[in-house]
Design brief:
The N and C termini lie far apart (56 Å). The longest helix is centred in the C-terminal third of the chain and has 24 residues. The protein has a three-stranded antiparallel sheet with strand order 1-2-3, with no helix packed on it. By secondary structure, the protein is α+β, with helices and mostly antiparallel strands. The model has no long low-confidence stretch (mean pLDDT 79). The chain has three helices and three strands.
Amino acid sequence: MNQSTVDMTCEHCEAFNEVSYSGLGVQSSGMVKCAVCAGELLLWKGTRDYNKAELKISPAKERILTRDEQHRATEFLFESARRRRKLLDTPEITNSPMLAAAQAEASAFERAAEFLMGCADNTGSA
């Protein structure tokens, strides 16, 4: 039995699906649904037996931030980290089980801001 795969982009959600199939000796028919939105991906009739679709690449629904949006987002994240760090100095948090969570949040805000700064540095737009 001959087995292979074919890549298909869903016309409904733009997800990139991988569909496996095998050769049959007899005529058959069926439908393959998108792995993301369950929309019709392939309606087939013939000597190939198509299996279930698997997500290969998610649809890109995000848009690219402008340099100004990156700058504002970076400022927001650094300010959020600064506030968390300031909160860490209060006795209520210092002696609390929330200390580790607040430290982790501050670090996450800082990492996200540094990531955005790196993205802004790598864009050629002004």
